[in-house]
What we know:
Layout: H1 16-19, H2 41-58, H3 71-83, E1 97-99, E2 107-119, E3 125-135, E4 139-141, H4 143-154, E5 157-158, H5 160-175, E6 180-188, H6 189-192, E7 203-208, H7 215-226
Parallel strand pairs: 2-5
Antiparallel strand pairs: 1-4, 2-3, 3-6, 6-7
Amino acid sequence: MNTNSTETNSLNGFSHYAIGDDHLYTGLETPIKKDAFLLSDEDKKKKISILFEEIMNVMGLDLEDDSLRGTPDRVAKMYIDEIFSGLNPKNKPEIALFDNKYQYNQMLVEKNITFYSNCEHHFVPIIGKAHVAYISSGKVIGLSKLNRIVQYYAKRPQVQERLTNQIGEELKKILGTDDVAVIIDAKHLCVSSRGIKDESSATVTAYYSGAFNSSAKIAELNNYIKS
């Protein structure tokens, strides 16, 4: 690691190398340029394919090989249509709410929502489970939509703290209630497959709002998750 590098990040003038592997969390919103969606998805895929081909060339890979020839196009399609599709607002799930006709006024917990995201510092996977809960203020949401909200925010370069808060804030806005909780338990391949190479550690983050700010509700929620 070249600690003498003078290359600086726009964040407070820190060196990229001085920052190292620290998981900086610069705000609730994913850092996206204002002109991020001027190019169509097809144009983005074409440009990414060209650029990734150049990366492969620099690495010395033979793009004439049958196995590698289509890789730039495959990577471009994967970036735009799959693992980073949550960057584009057009892919945000449409959510319909329903009246809480059952008069269910206790917490609803959707646990073990599996997600795959990518660390924005190294572009390697974050693999985890999200547990989300809310108490209805008069409206309820289809259970599958909770999964879709988690997936939408996961499918972008992420920091786990931001991902947790984005899901929590989105649920509050959609459901019209402050009584929302989100817990994420995830494994970061930037920790397990490179750097320190610790395969046993995991990261847990939590978002508690409204009624979930009480120790009793947090304990109740954790009991549901562990059951």
